[in-house]
Design a protein that fits this description.
mainly alpha, 7 helices
Length: 125
């Protein structure tokens, strides 16, 4: 179920070396946005939003929103599909997130440029 998928997402974050986040500081939805494949991520996002419509607006201890975490993913293939799922869900449920700066005062667009995901995220749908 949802809890199992979120726990698995947090474990994957712990094993992902390309991230700069402490996995213990990432809330489960953030961890899911960072590492789950698109099919799993769609289920997790749908269920998380059903349980908490504000889930995409909850900031981590570092000021990150799930869209910030998603924008640090790779920019090709399945990662791009998962990234766009988070961008689309954020646009639909918490559009103010695109103007939210993280703890380092970076907007989602800054992360898109930094992690070279701009060509998928520039429109930010």
């Amino acid at each position: 179920g949802l809890v199992t998928e979120l726990i698995q997402a947090r474990r994957r974050v712990a094993l992902t070396t390309r991230t700069w986040h402490s996995p213990l500081e990432l809330p489960p939805v953030h961890a899911a946005a960072l590492v789950l494949p698109a099919a799993e991520l769609r289920r997790v996002l749908d269920r998380a939003l059903e349980l908490d419509p504000g889930a995409l607006g909850d900031a981590s201890s570092q000021g990150l929103l799930p869209v910030h975490a998603a924008l640090t993913r790779g920019a090709e293939g399945a990662d791009a599909e998962a990234l766009l799922l988070v961008v689309d869900a954020t646009a639909a449920h918490h559009p103010a997130a695109f103007g939210h700066a993280d703890g380092d005062r970076r907007l989602p667009l800054h992360l898109a440029l930094e992690f070279q995901t701009a060509h998928e995220a520039v429109a930010l749908r």
